[in-house]
Amino acid sequence: MGFDGLLPALQSGRVDMVISGMTPTDERKKSIDFSDTYYKSKQVIMIRNEDKDKYSTMADLENEKIGVQKGSIQETIGQGIPGAKLTALDKISDIVLQLQTNRVNAAIVEDTVAAGYLDDVIGLSAAIPDEEQVEAAIGIRKGNTELLNAVNGTLERLKNENKIDQMVTEASQLMADKVNKTQNIFEVFWQYKSFYATGVGYTLLLSALGVIFGVIIGLIICLFRLHDVAILRWLGTAYVEVIRGTPMLVQLMIIYYGLALTLGINFTPLQAGIITLSINSGAYLAEIFRAGIQGVDRGQLEAARSLGMGRGAAMRFIILPQAFKAVLPAIGNEFVTIIKESSIISVIGMVDIMYQASVVKNITYQGMNPFLIAAAIYFVLTFILSKLLGRLERKLSKGEVVVVIGPSGSGKSTFLRCLNLLEQPTSGEIDFEGVSITDPKHNINATREKMGMVFQHFNLFPHKTVQQNITIAPIKVKKQSAQEAEQICEDLLKTVGLSDKKDAYPNQLSGGQKQRIAIARALAMQPHVMLFDEPTSALDPEMVGEVLDVMKRLAVGGMTMVIVTHEMGFAREVGDRILFMDGGVIVEEGTPDEVFGQPKHARTRDFLAKVL
């Protein structure tokens, strides 16, 4: 906790006393009680070695940049120096770092604290002005006379036994030892790995609970915003605007300190952190849920109502499940964001990654390495989660129709061909039915039996008849009998409307007929998923419709499909999910209404403006 947070913590009852070299000024005595003085110290000027002859008194600091501890007597002294430009920070170690990096010209600190830094290794010196000594006392909550008397009694005993001077000497020596012992970043991490491990645990706990409760709050606020009752809509809108319009730090201070001071509600740092992250996350998730609900086809609500469902039942059983599925990736992304934003909770003493990094910094007196380690940990956490979310976002559900659109050369066909390893992906992993097909030991041919593929240029076998094209794989690969395979062939030819072509050769067929036969050939293997690689791009316009009709019937029948196409109207009609690709990456993803009606990415909007 920063020095300036000690008074609010004491006043709100978070702590019983403050032992931090606090000077009992008249202003502070109005808010808290002080014990007898337990120590007197001088204020010194810490400077860089090259400035030894430049600063020797407080008067020399006029018009200079000075570092001081926020809320301390040193800040008060600095404010009395004419023209001084103060940099007030929470921790002395931060002030020293400012001095070392030439951001301030001097720092005013207590003599015993300065002693721990005065070593030529870090290039610091001190000037000791001829100033009066400053007293230090223990802060006690106003009116707690019993504790005050007990503290004064203990201080009297320690003074009589000369224990306080002994403590100061030992502390100064410990500080000096820490400064003299330099460690590289790997040594720091290894020595204090348990600190960081604890921080990671609390960070993940904070973030997970923040998102879980944020989802609940967000859903409630979302339903308020969509409600027919005006007052509920107003409350939902007000919540979102207020939470999104105020800094999270302010919200945290109100919840942790404000409620304790005004209402006597004392939350622990963990509880305050979870509440702050939850209400903040809830405001953003409310808008995500609202977009998800509005993205569900209105016909879904009408269909549910026509079956006798009330509005609540229709929303619960029909609309919300679809909306939740659509926004699941966004919820995952919110979790990643919350992991980084949770670092702000460290200001109230929550033991997260940032707090532990500050602890290590104060122990080691290293200004950079502890935070580089923290940055690396945050990166690893968010990178792993982002990759996991990326895999979840590209998950294909049974019976789902995913349509991939984008300009020529955007990588659509390459993406599709990677799904059955006709092209080898250079990185990443592809799972099919719970098995990694990119594993070199995996039998890809067995998987391809379950993945039917229809090519842009048909790729029928020209030396075989239509029936032979359709039956060769079932007979040779699946070991079906000729009779069984031919029966399946006959049924499929009826499905695609070409029963009279079973003895024809490919060169006797039109383009549309060839593509329908190609579809029948893929279906003959009874695949679990169908891959279509621009199935109509090589056809004359009048032949496109007959192929699309077959694909529409497959979609209605519940066939799982991934379709690469330039037919935007078809994509919007049959797709459950639309992926827009450009430059080899998936730029945008959503329902047809979201992508075609309200595209979020500028590149998507530009592409659709040209093709629609």
TrEMBL record:
Matching NCBIfam families: HEQRo_perm_3TM
Species this protein is from: Phytophthora kernoviae 00238/432
Name of the featured protein: ABC transmembrane type-1 domain-containing protein
Domain annotation ABC transporter: ranges: 372-608
Stated family: Belongs to the ABC transporter superfamily.
PROSITE patterns found in the cross-reference section: ABC_TM1, ABC_TRANSPORTER_1, ABC_TRANSPORTER_2
An annotated GO BP: amino acid transport
Main location: membrane
Pfam family, one: ABC_tran
Domain ABC transmembrane type-1: 200-389
Record key words, sorted: Amino-acid transport, ATP-binding, Cell membrane, Membrane, Nucleotide-binding, Transmembrane, Transmembrane helix, Transport
UniProt-recorded Gene Ontology molecular function terms: ATP binding; ATP hydrolysis activity; transmembrane transporter activity
Gene Ontology CC terms, in alphabetical order: ATP-binding cassette (ABC) transporter complex
Compartments it resides in: Cell membrane
